[in-house]
Amino acid sequence: MDIKNIIVKEYLESLTEKNELNRIFPILLEVMGFTILSKPTEYIGLQEYGKDIVAVGVDLDNVKKRFYFELKGGNERDITNENFYGKDGIADSLTQASYNKFVSAFPEFDTLPLKIIIVHNGIIKGAVQSTFESMIKGLEENLKNTTFDRWDISRLTIMFSEKLFGAYLLTDPITTKLFNRILVNLNASDGISKDYTQLIKILLEKNEWKKNKKLARKWVLLFESLKLIGFIIYTECKEYNNLEIAKRYLTHLTLAFWHWILKNKLERDKKVIVYFEQVLQFYYQVLTEYFSRTIDIACLKDGLYSEDGGRYEQIGYTNRTFEYLEYFCLRTNIDRFFNGKNNDELFNNLLVKIINNNNVCTRPLLDINSITISNILNLFIELNQAQNAKNYLFLVVRQIIYSKENFDFLPDCNNSIENVIKFLVTGTKPVYYSDSTSLLITMILEYIVIFDMEQSYNELRDFIKKHEIDLGIFIPFHGVGSKNTKLISDKNNDLEEQLFSKSFTDGYQSEIRITERSPSKNLSFAEFKEKTLRKDKEFTYQYRAAEAGFPFLTELAHTYFLTPYFPDKWRKYFNRFIPEN
User: Fold this and answer.
1) How many whole angstroms separate alpha carbon 101 and alpha carbon 146?
2) Rounded Cα–Cα distance for residues 152 and 150 (Å)
3) CA-to-CA distance for 400 and 115, rounded, in angstroms?
4) What is the rounded distance in angstroms from the CA atom of residue 411 to the CA atom of residue 247?
5) Which residues of 177-215 are buried (b: 16+ CB within 10 A; e: fewer)?
6) For residue 579, is pLDDT > 60?
7) 17 near 232, Cβ under 8 Å?
8) d(CA 373, CA 417)
């Protein structure tokens, strides 16, 4: 057996829960050309025994047939005397599948020959094999146009190797070696391995896209391979009991897939988007499982604090909390976009609990923490909880002022957590530590305008002037009606193609002032508000992701590639809470 088959066999054997086999097996059937009429999750709890998956396809004898697949995984993956005769066992499943009719509107469904297949990622043990074969022989004699089969671990290994893994994913020694290293080193670091990013890049760039009316098989194999990679990463991470790893890797997979779609101008191609939606749906499910496992802990007092963090936990706790809230807001936005606002009260209560019990989330360490702060404020706005937003913003302002006045600390504008650690441990700012400029504080000033918080403005204005902090907002050159498009350095990629592939830098810093040109005169809140509100159209952009129905994807890109939000992220709320004149 070659290395490819060994990897596939070991992976299939590692699927220790039935729902894991339920998720991956339909991918194989789709690649093999089957039309799937029902999947396992659609009939949980219903009387459809022996029909985990119902499909129509062409059999090895080149005859089109109905297929009923009964999946046995987890502790039932090996067929034994016990699970053959037990309740909902093999014998029961075969009988139910044979005599219980499945109703379908598929053309000529009832007239097609029927094949019932037991699928299990194990073996059949002992004398039960002869019992099994005797039973199916008897059923075939009594039933018209009905045959039976069994696909075990050996058969599945060959099929997955030839039809899926070997067809696109593990096609050469390089990809096979990369994939094997990814699985071996999955739990080795806190980031994403270079092997993983390289593998995804190789797969996406293997073929050049050419438009056809029908989606070519090589593209189906690519998209199914991406789904398969995501699922394998997820199952491996469950073995480590660490869905944090799965969250990171599936974030990269989702963004890389969407970037490929943008580069090939396919965001409106329904044949391609249906596969992206499947990857996105699985990513959402993993995020949901991640938060279902952790949310109760996060809502405890200092729940995101780690006692194993040691002397640097004052940094780790804060960093961990900001990241947790980033993805909590993202997952909430995805849920609200697809499922409506029925759970808004729950989301608001959970967000308030996390903030109240982990108050380090009001103490930014890096300028890029502006992303999390903006996510929280925007989510409160969308949940119609303006007062909660104001309370949180007030605490952030106070904490920034307190940290500077008492510890001479402001968030690092170069966004280096290593610099922050060195500074807080030694009391001396590293050479590349920068706190003389702050995009974060500038953003906060504009949110203060949104919420009409005059007192907070006055405090922050005096603080900024005292410590001579430069203010500015990053503006891309790509805005609607921009006069600076000739300054764009990366002319091969539009704004989103850059945003979804790297940290975005193709723009300029727009100066924000809290004084008149003569520094002696401070701008009053009314004067600053007036100047700020006039900038509502300074940067606008028509995002292709939003037009395709995925507006939350840009949030994910900003978070993953550490690109500060552009001002349209919050300026869309200008005047929302300001009384009309």
Assistant:
1) 13
2) 6
3) 68
4) 26
5) ebbbbbbeebeeeeebbebbbebbeebbeeeebeeeeee
6) no
7) no
8) 17
**Measured in whole angstroms, how far is the alpha carbon of residue 170 from the centre of its chain?**
24
Segment 290-308, tens digit of pLDDT: 999 999 999 999 999 987 7
Q: How far apart are CA 98 and CA 146, in angstroms?
A: 8
CA distance 373 to 198: 32
- Cα–Cα dist 122/74, whole Å: 9
CB 411 within 8 A of CB 367: yes
Confirm if 120 and 73 have CB atoms less than 8 A apart: yes
Reading the block at residue 1, the tokens are 């057996």
Using DSSP's 3-state secondary structure scheme, residue 525 falls into helix
Is there a contact between 313 and 306 (Cβ–Cβ < 8 Å)?
yes
Band the pLDDT of 580: cuts 50, 70, 90: very low
Chain segment 201-260, per-residue pLDDT in tens: 999 999 999 888 888 888 988 998 898 899 889 988 988 899 999 999 999 999 999 999
pLDDT category, 446, cuts 50, 70, 90?
very high
pLDDT in tens, 402-442: 999 999 999 999 999 999 999 988 889 999 999 999 999 99
Residue 102 has pLDDT above 80, yes or no: yes
Give the list of residues 6+ apart from residue 487 with CB closer than 8 angstroms, or none. 477, 508
Quick one: tokens of 267?
Answer: 């965001």
Sign of CA dihedral 333, 334, 337, 342: negative
Pick from 148, 180, 165: nearest CA to 70? 148
**What does the DSSP 8-state code read for residue 78?**
S
Q: Which residues contact 158 (CB under 8 A, 6 or more apart)?
A: 5
* pLDDT given at position 297: 97
Burial class (CB in 10 A: 0-12, 13-18, 19+), 452: middle
Structure tokens at 271: 């044949």
Model pTM above 0.90: no
From the number of C-beta atoms within 10 Å of its C-beta (0-12, 13-18, 19+), residue 354 rates as: buried
How far CA 127 is from CA of 132, 147, 273, 344, in Å, comes to 9, 22, 49, 57
pLDDT one-digit tens code per residue, 64-79:
999 999 998 888 889 9
d(CA 471, CA 458) in angstroms, rounded, equals 15
Q: Residue 167 and residue 222: Cα distance in Å, rounded?
A: 9
Amino acid at 183: L
At 69 the three-state DSSP class reads strand
Provide the residue count of the chain. 581
Token couple for 543: 């995002």
Cα–Cα distance measured from residue 556 to residue 548, given in angstroms and rounded to the nearest whole number = 16
Which position has the token pair 């996105």? 280
Burial class (CB in 10 A: 0-12, 13-18, 19+), 392: buried
3-state helix, strand, coil in the chain (%, to 5): 60, 10, 35
Q: Measured between alpha carbons, how far is residue 349 from residues 290, 338, 429, 536 in Å?
A: 18, 20, 39, 31
